[in-house]
Amino acid sequence: GGALMDQGVHVIDLARWFLSSEPNKVKSFTSNKYWESGVEDNAFVLLKNKDKQTASLHVSITEWSPTFLMEVVGTKGYCKISGFGKKYDDGETLTTGALDKNHKISKQYKKYKVVPFDSVRKELDCFVRSIKKKKNMGPSGADGVGVLEIVKKAYKNE
Known about the structure:
Layout: H1 3-18, E1 23-31, E2 42-49, E3 54-60, E4 69-73, E5 77-82, E6 92-99, E7 105-108, E8 112-114, H2 118-133, H3 141-157
Antiparallel strand pairs: 1-2, 2-3, 4-5, 5-6, 6-7, 6-8
Helix pairs in contact: 1-3
């Protein structure tokens, strides 16, 4: 695989975490227009679950300077995450906001700067706690299989 198997698996994993149930519909489009390497350089994936929640994903290996943007919109609010550690001038930023009954932004909360690579430290802390408590405290092997099942469907669907 190309972009979908490279960084796409991580984005699908995030989408699965935010959705209330496993996606049961997968639509996708891929392209190999930039590198012409035999694998996709761009992948566009739409996911939908039984609760009619959707996720729209785009991963690419055509940009020299990496970009990351994720937006999650719910019935009561939203969050936007951008940047990715030291690779970005502005670091990582989390913006959250509340929606009123008409789904208009009623309050935009302060943007939070995240310490670069703090998430990696937190992942390692979670891993150590899992070992000490002999209990899975984070993603499991089944989560990895679930992501790869979606990738498989995306490749069949294109």
